[in-house]
Description:
By secondary structure, the protein is an alpha+beta fold. Helix content is about 50%, strand content about 10%. The protein folds into 2 domains: about 5-85, 3-Layer(aba) Sandwich (Glutaredoxin), CATH 3.40.30; about 90-200, Glutathione S-transferase Yfyf (Class Pi), Chain A, domain 2.
Amino acid sequence: MSDLVLYNYYRSSTSYRARIALHLKSLPFEYRAVSLIKDGGEQHKPEYQSLNPAGEVPTLIHGKRVIAQSMAVIEYLDDVFPTTPLFPKDPYARAQVKQICEGINCGHSLTNLKVQNYLEKEIGVSPEKKSQWVKHWISKLCDSSEKLIARTAGKYGFGDTVTAVDAFLIPHLFSANRFGVDISLYPTLARVNDECLKLEAFKKAHPSQQIDMPKS
């Protein structure tokens, strides 16, 4: 039995990032599903909030250590399991990778499920306007990511080796597709997406391959 446990949700892009990192590093882990929808959201239950007071996914357990937030999870995995590093050692290159990742992080926060729920249930935004909100911010993030990654891309998002850039970008593009954003408008992102999705780690991490993916 693995001493790594990942609490996550199949469709959560932040969970998807963590799964990509784990699979890239060939680290066995126990998958524990946290439905963000069932019974009002299992992330709100006291037993989960005792691990992650923010009520968010993913949460990584390593022995007795508890780590939340996808950036912290991936950096921790890189430090503790340095094989297949996802962050460059060179300080400037590392900063560039983090810049792109944090840009995706910031944009994602405007479109995640709890923001969508608040817009609709508390402010009274219609489902149509809510979708318009999500699509707008995803598109804005694709615009800026295309410009940044066009400067750094080789075969993948940062040169010819898979990095954290790819672990953050591919889940973002999955969400873009889901909300009807035309990825073909972003040629660098579309090409990197195609290359990454050929890799076994990305195939294993894909939402469609997770145990909590609905059958219908």
